[in-house]
Write a sequence for this structure.
């Protein structure tokens, strides 16, 4: 069960085998004063941090509850070494936005504790607490550009640098340049948190293992399957790809937060074809965990930073990775009997296709409690003529008597991933075989009447063919489910019409923003198609 919020109910105690994060006490005033006097600690931090608010650090600790915790502004925890309860610094949770279930975190340690991996340990404790216990779905970290050590820590902890080069007022004479790092939860899944790693020559055992693994390289059957990479070839390969890349090549391993090598990403300039070509390989034991999506996003980001305008990949016609590339903005350039050439314009503004994330409350029935969650998949379904397909339900139950329009979809069954689930649901309810074009996003909402929290994962899908429906008994007898074929404008009008009932209003609040975002995505894809 997901709770509404527990972030400011009480001070948490977070600990691992070496450190503890807990509420500070008056006994920490002396240590706090010594930390505040260390200029090197605050060189890359805002000037207005709470511990700097009062000269007397006893006053800081005395007023911490009423000015920070009780007002839900900041949660300040001391960082202590467990063996002797030594005070090492402060872990802070701030900028809490309950409606978005979002907050920011920061760590500051006394300089004598730097280089001992305490910041990494403390951040991982906070992240686990926020995601697993405090119902937070978005965590951000704002780090000054020159603070390389803190940037390395957040990357190790699963953050992704999402918004680079932002000017912010941190209380200095001039604004400072920062990078914003983000961890997000999509549906019920946290971003895997991969980060690129430049291998050393001695690390090339992993690439040898990767290329020799039959399951990993099964996608490469059109080009011969596994690839030999003997140790005597390592120095020349390393010199070409890593040392003397001449801005024509990029190669990195990918590490997960545990430090494991999980795959490789690369791009290179193909002089003969005058294109930049991508490469992503995830080691087979780590597949099915969302790493492929993260890897491709990182590669596109790195290629864009290198000034590459368009990134290409030619993929075997039967390679399931094609759908992954399409979800991340790649478009088909051409195809043969053996390969599909895909390309992505890295200079495009992706705001129209960025995933939608909404947090909605039930304003039609009073909230009492939530005792179960439901992971749901739904889709905006369209055909090649531009018509959209929905379901019409006629119900008379605890929600009242109502005729409704709703996107087709349903609950994810045990053992299914969301992509499998949406294809099954659309075949059952619409009789449609579909191609998944992209994810639209996630909408969290509530049905207070039945004490349920819904996590709705929305997709944009294109109809390939129609066949027989396979409706459940309750869908036939209780909901009288039928198919609606509408234009975009007709669908908007139908949602407005059906919002006259309480359940209809809840559905419209959830789905009209999704429909509008689907329209934006469709327009973006149409424009991209026209430019090819």
């Amino acid at each position: 069960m997901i709770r509404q919020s527990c972030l400011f109910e009480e001070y948490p105690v977070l600990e691992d085998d070496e450190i503890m994060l807990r509420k500070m006490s008056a006994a920490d005033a002396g240590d706090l004063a010594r930390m505040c006097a260390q200029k090197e600690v605050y060189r890359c931090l805002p000037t207005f941090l709470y511990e700097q608010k009062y000269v007397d650090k006893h006053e800081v600790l005395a007023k911490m509850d009423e000015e920070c915790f009780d007002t839900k502004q900041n949660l300040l925890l001391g960082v202590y070494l467990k063996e002797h309860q030594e005070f090492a610094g402060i872990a802070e949770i701030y900028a809490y936005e309950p409606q978005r279930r979002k907050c920011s975190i920061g760590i500051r340690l006394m300089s004598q504790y730097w280089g001992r991996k305490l910041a990494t340990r403390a951040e991982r404790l906070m992240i686990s607490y926020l995601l697993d216990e405090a119902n937070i779905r978005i965590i951000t970290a704002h780090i000054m550009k020159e603070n390389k050590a803190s940037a390395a820590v957040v990357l190790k902890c699963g953050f992704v640098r999402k918004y680079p080069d932002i000017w912010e007022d941190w209380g200095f004479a001039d604004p400072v340049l920062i990078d914003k790092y983000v961890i997000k939860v999509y549906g019920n899944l946290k971003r895997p948190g991969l980060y690129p790693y430049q291998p050393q020559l001695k690390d090339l055992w992993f690439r040898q293992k990767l290329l020799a693994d039959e399951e990993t390289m099964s996608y490469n059957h059109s080009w011969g399957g596994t690839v030999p990479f003997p140790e005597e070839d390592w120095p020349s390969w390393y010199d070409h790809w890593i040392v003397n890349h001449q801005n024509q090549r990029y190669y990195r391993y990918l590490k997960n937060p545990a430090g494991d090598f999980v795959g490789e990403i690369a791009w290179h300039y193909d002089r003969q074809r005058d294109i930049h070509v991508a490469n992503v390989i995830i080691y087979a034991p780590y597949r099915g965990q969302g790493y492929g999506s993260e890897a491709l996003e990182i590669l596109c980001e790195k290629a864009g930073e290198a000034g590459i305008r368009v990134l290409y990949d030619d993929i075997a016609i039967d390679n399931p990775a094609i759908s992954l590339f399409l979800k991340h903005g790649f478009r088909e350039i051409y195809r043969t009997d053996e390969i599909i050439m895909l390309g992505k314009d890295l200079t495009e503004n992706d705001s129209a296709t960025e995933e939608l994330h909404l947090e909605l409350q039930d304003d039609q029935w009073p909230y009492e409690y939530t005792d179960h969650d439901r992971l749901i998949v739904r889709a905006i379904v369209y055909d090649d003529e531009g018509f959209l397909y929905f379901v019409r339900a006629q119900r008379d139950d605890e929600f009242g008597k109502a005729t409704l329009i709703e996107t087709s979809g349903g609950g994810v069954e045990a053992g299914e991933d969301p992509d499998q689930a949406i294809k099954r649901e659309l075949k059952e309810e619409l009789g449609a075989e579909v191609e998944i074009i992209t994810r639209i996003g996630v909408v969290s909402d509530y049905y207070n009447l039945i004490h349920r929290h819904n996590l709705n994962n929305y997709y944009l899908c294109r109809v390939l063919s129609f066949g027989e429906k396979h409706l459940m008994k309750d869908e036939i007898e209780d909901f009288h489910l039928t198919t609606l074929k509408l234009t975009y404008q007709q669908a908007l009008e139908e949602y407005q019409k059906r919002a006259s009932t309480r359940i209809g209003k809840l559905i419209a609040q959830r789905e009209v923003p999704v429909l509008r975002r689907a329209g934006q995505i469709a327009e973006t894809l149409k424009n991209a198609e026209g430019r090819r």
Summary: Confidence is low (pLDDT under 50) at residues 1-5, 186-192, 349-353. The first strand starts at residue 14 and ends at 15. Residues 502-531 form the longest helix (30 residues). Residues 357 and 385 are 29 Å apart (CA to CA).
